[in-house]
């Protein structure tokens, strides 16, 4: 088997909000890449053995005291280097050029004029040698280092891009990694393929083949336990492990009674029946509802649901003999973010030997086959592994489930009503094509009664709120502007088909100041 991570690109992160996107774009181009903090050690850089290095953008100015610099070895390894925005500025300064503080921050679309087409800008310009890019910078390079030539400019930025083709050093002031840069994908592909000479072995089929081999080596003939939730990450881990080790895998699916309509049955059908995976279903609805009785505070509810989950999972785990490994669906952004928040920088891989929260007597070794993959890569893997598209491209569903979508105290009666309403909402979103146009949508149970009229009678029943949002990062969101006809159809169906609902409202709050969930 070819070594699919042999051609690898190192990304040194100077803290730009777009840094992760660079790694994703490189991988989309079929080349393995990893991102580390800019002050990665010389030994680690050498050990990584990159075919090329990308210096990311960053929020600082090279004129600020103590502002970050690229390790000198980056320019002495003999591999191509691409500096993006701040990365271009520090590269210029470190190699003898000059950077000046700009009086104005240039932010937004710009049109570059390509004056010299090097390998990086191959097929980037149109017939007039122009191309639309996304700029976001204050400082700019005003004198290039020796050996560099300008390759493009804009009216306000004389060195929008430049290169030293002998040493294979390239710099761009704009951001090729964001989709606003029209030919960004081509530019990154030029760098990794034409300039660095990487192949394109990083694709789903090869990743699956590699992962299966690695899992077989790591696990041997031992047994593995996996908490299966039906979400994308744990589903892909289940499918991957099943291919790698077959019956050595046991999954535990905890049905907490706070799932969507028929979800438990669907998970069992998909994994146990269709794929032949050994899945233990722990029906714990009653237990969760008992623990939640009388509790109204959202954070208290979250804690109880989390605690009960661990207890149920641990009980099931204790019933199994000789399990050595616990599999988890950790993905690369979890790894980067948790390292960043702890260390103030990008990426420190730690291996740990237990999962947060499990009791000490259950000391498993971890198996995390998605730990170096982005969500979009995980999804592609899932499709390639035969998991149906609708499961892989589902809206996120929070761990506490309907527990935080029933305001205040959670009761089975409320959960049953909410499940029906949510199901009607989802059916109509899918039928109208709006499911894929929204990032997350769900119904929320309001524990208040409202008067309605049915035929000649009066109805005094519950209120359901509908929530649908558009967002990319879930940090900010705007309420989805669903067509009124669609909202009309959904609300009519909910009130007609569920006798316990007398009123439907649509949530028109954006985040901030509102959150996406109601609790
Ligand atoms: P908010 O409500 O904070 O939600 O705007 C942002 C995203 O996080 C999800 N969310 C949760 N996910 N456990 C989870 O696993 C939770 O307790 C939780 N609370 C919110 C929410 O669904 C949205 O996608």
TrEMBL record:
Metabolic or biological pathway, per its Swiss-Prot or TrEMBL entry: Purine metabolism; GMP biosynthesis; GMP from XMP (L-Gln route): step 1/1
Q: Which GO terms describe its cellular component?
A: cytosol
In the UniProt record, does the keyword Nucleotide-binding occur? yes
In short, the EC number is: 6.3.5.2
Q: Which residues bind ATP?
A: 229-235
GMPS ATP-PPase domain boundaries: 202-394
Q: Name one GO molecular function term.
A: ATP binding
Q: Which reaction does it catalyse?
A: XMP + L-glutamine + ATP + H2O = GMP + L-glutamate + AMP + diphosphate + 2 H(+)
Keyword Oxidoreductase attributed: no
* Family annotation (InterPro entries): Class_I_gatase-like, GATASE, GMP_synth_C, GMP_synth_GATase, GMP_synthase, GMPS_ATP_PPase_dom, NAD/GMP_synthase, Rossmann-like_a/b/a_fold
Report the superkingdom from the record: Bacteria
Which Gene3D superfamilies did the record assign? 3.30.300.10, 3.40.50.880, HUPs
Q: Where is the active site?
A: 85 (nucleophile), 175, 177
| Keyword field | ATP-binding, Glutamine amidotransferase, GMP biosynthesis, Ligase, Nucleotide-binding, Purine biosynthesis
Q: Which Pfam families match?
A: GATase, GMP_synt_C, NAD_synthase
Give the protein's biological function: Catalyzes the synthesis of GMP from XMP.
Q: Which HAMAP family match?
A: GMP_synthase
Subunit info?
A: Homodimer.
Q: Which NCBIfam families match?
A: guaA_Cterm, guaA_Nterm, PRK00074.1
Q: What is this protein called?
A: GMP synthase [glutamine-hydrolyzing]
Native source species? Moraxella pluranimalium
Q: What is the lineage of its organism?
A: Bacteria, Pseudomonadati, Pseudomonadota, Gammaproteobacteria, Moraxellales
